[in-house]
Amino acid sequence: MTTKLVSCVILDLDGTLLNTDGVVDKVLKIVLSNYGKEWDGREALKIVGKTPFESAADVVQDYGLPCSTTEFISQISPLFYDQWCNIKELPGANRLIKHLKSHDVPMALASNSPRESIEAKLSYHDGWKSSFSVIIGGDEVRTGKPSPEMFLEAARRLNVEPSSCLVIEDSLPGITAGKAAEMEVVVVPSLRKQSHLYSAADMVISSLLDLQLEKWGLPPFEDWVEGTLPLDRWYIGGPIVKGFGRGSKALGIPTANLSPEGYSDLLAEHPAGVYFGWAGLSTRGVFKMVMSIGWNPYFNNKEKTIEPWLLHDFNEDFYGEELRLLIVGYIRPEANFPTLESLIAKIHEDRRVAERALDIPLYSSYKNDSYLRSSHE
Ligand code: ADP
Ligand code: RBF
Ligand code: MG
Asked: Which domain holds residue 26?
């Protein structure tokens, strides 16, 4: 893959820096139920990245609502406004903004949302607004994305050539706009399994954690430690259930599965990929752990799962026991492999990376976290 060198970055907001999907779901569910309709999310792909008017028009038409698009917008707007404070930052978003800012890389924000909504959303995220030299909303140009207009205007205001800009986007209208502006475009898709839609982008990555800025001549992230990226720690636990029955059999790598019930929000929040940390088993102790989160492309699972491999020889099963995980870092995105052997070899490499990293004080200190050892109800 050849990439051009750039000097500036232009970012999209919703779906790229902010996890707006949950809020969109919530609001549309409420308003459609007032019409006796059920929001089923099927529209998500169609409306992602569009202007608010186009998105609303799609929903009105596809659900056959007895109102005009303008009326519909006036019904959803106040609900959206109340939700801006609830939108979470996507993994790696804050890290990216802080990094570019600290290296004086000029940044613009270009979103199809109206300027007023952008300002409201940004106000809940410390230090974000002041990091952008330029902010452009959908109501500040004649035509929103997929027109290149707002990206070209952003370059003009940054005082650089369009070809010196890297666009970071999550949706098809954004990619189209970026390429029409003759910019470099990297896409972090918010919707999975649509990879054919993203072929126009110069690069597709699975989350902002995987962004390699040096590919465009920008200052590289310096926070990787021995092949691992330290994360804000997070916890998950529950009784071990039967998985797909192939970890030990097909791979020689047993993975202790947790029931997906009750942790769908946590799963949605964390990008697919390989993570590591510590695992506590109530009667056995605390062990090093490496795990995958995702759909396991090699096996093409229907559901996103967590597959933790405890780095210890147990000589027996322990189904039903309470497992507590503390995740401290990230290793790589999930991938497909040409052969089972190459998948297995990669997972063993992940194991070595995790084992070594967990001896570094940065990560080893978490072994004593009380969550891993507390007695369980
Ligand atoms: P399943 O499809 O049910 O997850 P696996 O073949 O992946 O089956 O085996 C996982 C089971 O193996 C775990 O639930 C646990 O009881 C047992 N086990 C034994 N050693 C380990 C280990 N080191 N890490 C994870 N699970 C292990
Ligand atoms: N499956 C994949 O299809 N792609 C991967 O990149 C991948 N990485 C993994 C990394 C680790 C550390 C572990 C424990 C598993 C990984 N697997 C991956 C999941 C493997 O397919 C899974 O454990 C089996 O499907 C057992 O259910
Ligand atoms: Mg398993």
From this structure: 21-86
